[in-house]
């Protein structure tokens, strides 16, 4: 069996031209044959989603979906694929919970809809009881060995949670009281999903960053890996999408988005947005889409209540914010929400915004201003050691998780 | 009379619940419920209009390019823009490849499991109890191979989409005036060779597989017929005139196609979970979700044409164009989808030759502070329209009418069932524990509930 180190090498940039190569599959098959690792059951739960992740997963090349669902895991429930319907299908969920407690993997696609106690999204009926997405998620997650949130919606709320968030969509981690491995993207790249699932099966939880995203896929910014990076360095900028040159000025969010798209590319390495001349819209960013819109507006137009952010430091600031980690997730969400609102001028807030909520937000915004201020100071002093920076940042922001 | 609920109806995009009443082995009453509300149009308000095609395609992961295209058309209409020839061709090539992707996936991944028993292996495990499966073993075996091949082919179609669209699902290049990816020679060659492979699969495998299913399940030419009212918004504009290859039109009671009049499209929320009255003021009224509304049973609204429920999809397109008029039923929908895939594969082969590398594929345009526009097209599963209103440079109003809002609409104020509900009436149910006919009929419409719940307003 491959060592974990070798596996990581396969998954990360070194051998990307091969994708998750066939080596991996034969290794896994061998491991199963020798009973080195058990084949875990897997439940795939769709909540408030466009089904983009399921479709993207179908685009997996090696391992492909058949190998993934038949040879790497034992697929129990996936409503887009399974033959049975109604009660017979749902029965598989309950049987898995009962027969394989703390063995199965739960993959969640789509954000958790919380409006009206979650009744804006019902997912199945069993024994004459209707289950909301929240009910189903809590029930299945309780006895799952691992919970993996795929796509931006499941990880952070994503487009479904875009302002004014009519359905009250939130990420999976905000609803269940346990660790969630986040695999973002809109949709998530097939390799990111298959790679994470394969790692979980073979070696357990992969090394995660502060957002609980696998480092092997989300360790560097698009900007750092971009093949137009030299254009940025030499100051060759495109003035309209589709032109050659760095796309920063036409809205590229590559500097604030951690993902390996430039080297991994999309759809069997056919293409990827920046190659076409389309700016990165930051779809793997925890704040997507509000924090990265307008898509064709370049970053300097961000206004905080503190002051306009300087275009040359914005990448560093946003990078630092990203590095702050899950502890500051709330802060980041508020930041993005606030920025989102600022960009969405003329938007009338929904009726639901209570006085209390506004007050709370003001307090957080005040704290955030302080954080931003301190951050800029830190960055000005050019503290290059990222680790040190993260530690210092972590001390600055309040810890705490938002619960619904 | 026995009542039966099936939830979820699997192999459908997003949560579909169906409640049927069965008497003497036949369905006598049916309601279809969409159990997911997200509200994308409310989110569109206040945003930069240039983001519309990128943001609103997030409505749907299976037909994302359709929403991107409709949004681009709507903005072009609002700003008075004409796309470049190359830009239009590139968009058609992306869109057409996404059609093939959808049709292959729809048949092999979503529909086929209704007609073959399959092995004791995921995703054919667990199996529906009992069941009326009629294919002999050797054909079953062949079909199972085709199941995985079909999946692979739809993956290759997505590679074609990505050639000019950067990635799939959710392409990143479709904008007003054209397409961001230029028609590079290497991309054209890659696209062309993938197209050849996919075309060969469609002609040699897909069409024949559909033919075999039709022969073994020929009674389904009489099951799932519905109202026989068809509607099409037009699809694939071509040439300088921008005349759609699949023309606009409506068919009432299976007759001759008539011209489409957009002014008589309305929607009804009598049985939808929205507060009453919102439909009265199309451009001013605010639609408010109301999950407690008495009698209401779905998030879908009921789109109507002159107050009539209409079916839309590949069958409607081919019927209006005149290339297929055999009938309107479960099997006819499957056949029309396959024939449409073949027609589109031929179109793509023509368009790829019409591209002129080096010629403009987009151009900068002026953003007007106030404007409004309509973008009509056909999505994979039928007529799709986007309506946009821009004030002070930002989107002030957005509405989307999707195919599933036509096909899977609930009852209206007159009590008329939606087209798919109507199609279920009279269908045989031999085994109440395993009502296969229900799934077969519903999936022939290729339902997509990710798209269906939008806050639409009458025009």
Can you give keywords for this protein?
heterodimer, A: 404 residues, alpha/beta, Rossmann fold, Cytochrome-c3 Hydrogenase, Chain A, domain 2, 5-stranded parallel sheet, two-stranded antiparallel sheet, 41% helix, disordered C terminus, B: 459 residues, alpha+beta, Cytochrome-c3 Hydrogenase, chain B, 3-stranded antiparallel sheet, globular
CATH topology of the largest domain in chain A: Rossmann fold
Give the C-alpha Rg of chain A. 21 Å
**Which term fits the overall shape of chain B?**
globular
Spatial extent as radius of gyration of chain B: 21 Å
Uncertain segments of chain B:
278-285, 454-459
Number of strands of chain A: 9
| Whole-number count of domains of chain B | 1
| Oligomer designation | heterodimer
Largest interface: A-B, 84 and 86 residues
Mean pLDDT of chain A: 77
**Helicity range of chain A:** 40-55%
Q: Architecture of chain B in CATH?
A: Orthogonal Bundle
H-E order of chain B: EEEHHHHHEEHEEEEHHEEEHHHH
Assigned CATH architecture of the largest domain in chain A:
3-Layer(aba) Sandwich
Report the total helices of chain B: 12
Span between termini of chain A: 43 Å
Kindly state the percentage of residues in helix of chain B.
25-40%
Please outline the major beta sheet of chain B.
Answer: 3 strands, antiparallel
How far is the N terminus from the C terminus of chain B?
Answer: 40 Å
Summarize the helix and strand pattern of chain A as letters: HHEHHEHEEEEHEHEEHHHHHHHHHH
């Amino acid at each position: 069996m491959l060592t974990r180190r070798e596996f990581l090498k396969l998954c990360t940039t070194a051998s990307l031209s091969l994708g998750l190569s066939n080596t991996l599959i034969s290794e896994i098959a061998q491991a199963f044959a020798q009973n080195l690792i058990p084949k875990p059951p897997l439940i795939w739960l769709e909540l408030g989603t466009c089904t983009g992740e399921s479709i993207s997963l179908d685009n997996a090349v090696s391992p492909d979906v058949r190998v993934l669902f038949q040879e790497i895991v034992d697929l129990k429930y996936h409503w887009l694929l399974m033959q049975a319907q109604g009660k017979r299908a749902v029965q598989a969920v309950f049987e898995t919970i009962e027969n394989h407690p703390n063995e199965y993997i739960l993959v969640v696609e789509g954000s958790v809809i919380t409006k009206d106690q979650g009744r804006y999204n019902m997912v199945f009926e069993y024994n004459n009881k209707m289950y909301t997405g929240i009910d189903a998620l809590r029930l299945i997650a309780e006895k799952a060995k691992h919970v993996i949130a795929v796509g931006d919606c499941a990880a952070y709320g994503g487009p479904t949670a875009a302002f004014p968030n009519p359905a009250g969509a939130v990420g999976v981690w905000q609803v269940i009281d346990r660790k969630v491995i986040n695999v973002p993207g809109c949709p998530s790249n097939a390799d990111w999903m298959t790679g994470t699932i394969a790692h979980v099966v073979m070696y357990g939880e992969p090394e995660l960053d502060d957002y609980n995203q696998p480092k092997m896929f989300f360790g560097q910014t698009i900007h750092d890996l971009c093949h137009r990076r030299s254009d940025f360095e030499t100051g060759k900028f495109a003035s309209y999408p589709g032109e050659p040159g760095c796309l920063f000025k036409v809205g590229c969010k590559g500097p604030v988005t951690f993902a390996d798209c430039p080297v991994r590319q999309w759809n069997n390495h056919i293409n990827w947005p920046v190659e076409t001349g389309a700016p990165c819209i930051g779809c793997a960013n925890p704040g997507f889409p509000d924090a990265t819109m307008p898509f064709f507006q370049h970053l300097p137009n961000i206004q905080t209540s503190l002051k306009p952010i300087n275009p040359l430091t914005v990448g560093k600031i946003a990078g630092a914010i990203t590095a702050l980690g899950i502890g500051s997730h709330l802060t980041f969400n508020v930041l993005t929400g606030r920025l989102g609102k600022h960009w969405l001028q003329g938007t009338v807030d929904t009726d639901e915004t209570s006085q209390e909520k506004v007050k709370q937000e003001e307090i957080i915004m005040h704290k955030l201003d302080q954080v931003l201020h301190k951050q800029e100071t830190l960055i000005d002093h050019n503290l290059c050691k990222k680790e040190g920076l993260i530690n210092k940042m972590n001390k600055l922001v309040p810890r705490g998780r938002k619960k619904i | 009379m026995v009542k039966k609920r099936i939830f979820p109806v699997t192999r459908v995009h997003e949560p579909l619940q169906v409640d049927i009443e069965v008497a003497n082995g036949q369905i006598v009453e049916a309601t279809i419920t969409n159990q997911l509300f997200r509200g994308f149009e409310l989110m569109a308000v206040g945003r930069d209009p240039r983001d519309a095609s990128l943001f609103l395609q997030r409505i749907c992961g299976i037909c994302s390019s359709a929403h991107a295209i409709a949004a681009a058309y709507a903005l072009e209409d609002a700003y008075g823009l004409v796309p470049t020839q190359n830009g239009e061709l590139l968009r058609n090539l992306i869109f057409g490849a996404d059609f093939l992707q959808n049709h292959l996936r729809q048949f092999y991944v979503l529909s086929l499991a209704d007609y073959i028993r399959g092995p004791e292996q995921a995703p054919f495990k667990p199996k529906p109890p009992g069941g009326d499966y009629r294919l002999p073993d050797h054909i079953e075996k062949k079909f199972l191979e085709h199941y995985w091949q079909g999946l692979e082919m739809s993956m290759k179609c997505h590679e074609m989409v990505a050639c000019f669209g950067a990635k799939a699902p959710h392409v990143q290049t479709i904008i007003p005036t054209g397409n961001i990816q230029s028609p590079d020679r290497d991309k054209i060659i890659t696209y062309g060779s993938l197209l050849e492979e996919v075309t060969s699969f469609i002609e040699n495998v897909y069409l024949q597989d559909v033919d075999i299913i039709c022969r073994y399940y020929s009674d389904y030419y009489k099951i799932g017929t519905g109202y026989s009212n068809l509607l099409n918004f037009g699809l694939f504009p071509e040439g300088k005139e921008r005349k759609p290859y699949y023309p606009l039109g409506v068919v009432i009671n299976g007759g001759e196609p008539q011209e489409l009049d957009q002014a008589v499209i309305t929607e009804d929320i009598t049985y939808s979970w929205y507060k009453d009255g919102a439909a009265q003021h199309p451009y001013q009224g605010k639609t408010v979700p109301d999950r407690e509304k008495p009698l209401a049973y779905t998030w879908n609204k009921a789109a109507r044409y002159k107050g009539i429920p209409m079916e839309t999809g590949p069958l409607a397109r081919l019927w209006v164009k005149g290339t297929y008029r055999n009938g309107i039923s479960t099997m006819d929908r499957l056949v029309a989808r396959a024939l449409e895939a073949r027609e589109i594969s031929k179109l793509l082969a023509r368009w790829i030759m019409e591209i002129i590398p080096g010629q403009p594929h987009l151009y900068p345009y002026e953003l007007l502070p106030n404007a409004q526009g309509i973008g009509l097209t056909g999505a994979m599963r039928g007529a799709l329209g986007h309506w946009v209103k821009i004030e002070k440079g930002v989107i002030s109003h957005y509405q989307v009418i999707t195919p599933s809002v036509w096909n899977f609409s609930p009852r209206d104020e007159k009590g008329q069932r939606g087209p798919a509900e109507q199609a279920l009436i009279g269908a045989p149910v031999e085994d109440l524990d395993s009502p296969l006919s229900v799934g077969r009929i519903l999936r022939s419409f290729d339902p997509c509930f990710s798209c269906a719940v939008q806050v639409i307003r009458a025009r």
